[in-house]
Design goal:
Elements: E1 3-5, H1 8-17, E2 22-23, E3 32-36, E4 39-44, E5 47-52, H2 56-62, E6 68-77, E7 82-92, E8 95-107, H3 109-126, E9 131-136, H4 139-146, H5 154-167, E10 172-177, H6 184-196
Parallel strand pairs: 6-9, 9-10
Antiparallel strand pairs: 1-5, 2-3, 3-4, 4-5, 6-7, 7-8
Helix pairs in contact: 3-5
Length: about 200
């Protein structure tokens, strides 16, 4: 049960900035409570206690993160363009920090890949990581983000600019191509979202 020495107002501001809702405490001693990913943060005078089976999301936000994360991303489109979805996962030395997936309506596969990358990088900024190593199985996206290939398609160009803007928030970042089997978790998340969608 992690205990973080922090002013409760500062802690509440960090959680709200990460999109986590603050609610009233259950006892007179509790200043507030917040719940996220099967864990609860309870604020007392000068400290926040995090309990539950997955406390790392809350503790990363409360401690302003830091450290390095590995982002795996993938997009899926059936029809190209057609129904599309995204999947991403952030891994740290402690295991999976966060993951996400959702449908995104009708899109091409490349648009879905970019949307997955944007969602993953955006999530990584929320957790306050200092460095991010990005891995994906789309050569096109990797080379465009690196600046090795031009982005002639206006829809993709706009997304590339958004990715590069988000990446300025990290002290260090890299993006590398990996085979599909290395990117299996993100691929599975994207396809499950499409199947469930």
């Amino acid at each position: 049960m992690p205990t973080i020495e922090i002013d409760s107002d500062v802690a509440a501001d960090r959680l709200r900035a990460a999109g986590i809702t603050i609610s009233e405490g259950n006892t007179p001693h509790e200043q507030w409570r917040a719940q996220c990913d099967h864990a609860v943060a309870v604020a007392y005078e000068g400290k926040v206690v995090v309990q539950g089976r997955s406390p790392k999301t809350l503790t990363m936000v409360l401690q302003e993160g830091g450290g390095k994360g590995y982002l795996y991303f993938d997009g899926a489109s059936r029809g190209n363009p057609g129904p599309a979805s995204i999947g991403w996962v952030i891994i740290t030395g402690d295991g999976i920090l966060a993951e996400g997936s959702r449908t995104i309506g009708t899109a091409t596969n490349n648009q879905a890949e970019y949307e997955a990358l944007i969602a993953g990088v955006d999530a990584a900024t929320t957790y306050g990581l200092d460095a991010l190593e990005i891995r994906g199985d789309s050569q096109l996206i990797i080379k465009q983000v690196r600046g090795e290939w031009q982005t002639n398609n206006p829809a993709l160009r706009e997304r590339r600019v958004r990715v590069r803007e988000l990446l300025t928030q990290f002290d260090d970042w890299s993006i590398e191509h990996v085979p599909r089997e290395i990117n299996e978790h993100a691929d599975k998340l994207a396809n499950e979202a499409l199947d469930d969608g």
